[in-house]
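Let us practice reading a record.
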Amino acid sequence: MSNRRTVKKGRYVGQNAFGVKKVVDVEDAWNYGAKITVGLNLKLPVPIEVARAIKDDLRVLAVVKPAGIRYEESFNGATIDAPSDTQLHEYTLVADQPRERYAFLESLSAVDVWIYNYKTGDIIYKRSDESKKEPMATDEAKEGIR
C-alpha cells in the first residue's frame, strides 16, 4: 500500500539525438507506503480432509512490530514516451527481514498470528506473544500524535 504526492517544478523543451522535440515536465514525487512480508512456516493440527476442504477460505492475520523506515531516492529522466524528469523520494515503513543493504533495521517482530476461516469466522490457529506488544498509548499521548 502506498500514497504518492507530486509537485510540478516547471517545464522545458527537450530534444533527443534524432531531433525530436518534446515538452518535458520537471517534478518531485514522494511515495509513502508500507511493506510487510511475513514468512510463516506452521504445522497446524488439522486433519488433511478438513485442510483440503477449507484451504481456499483460510486467511492469516499477523500483527507485527515495524522494523523501521527505509528511505530511497532515485531519478527518472525524460523519454519521448514519458516526457517527465522526476526526482523520486520513497519512504517505506518496513516490517520484513532486513537485507544486507538495510542491516541497520531490526528483524520482523510478529506479535500475534491468527489463521482463520474467512467464510465461517472460525479460528484455526492463534499465537500471541504478549512480551512483544507495545503498551497502549494514553489519550493524552494520542492527542500529541495527531
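A brief commentary: Residues 100-107, 140-146 have pLDDT under 50 and may be disordered.
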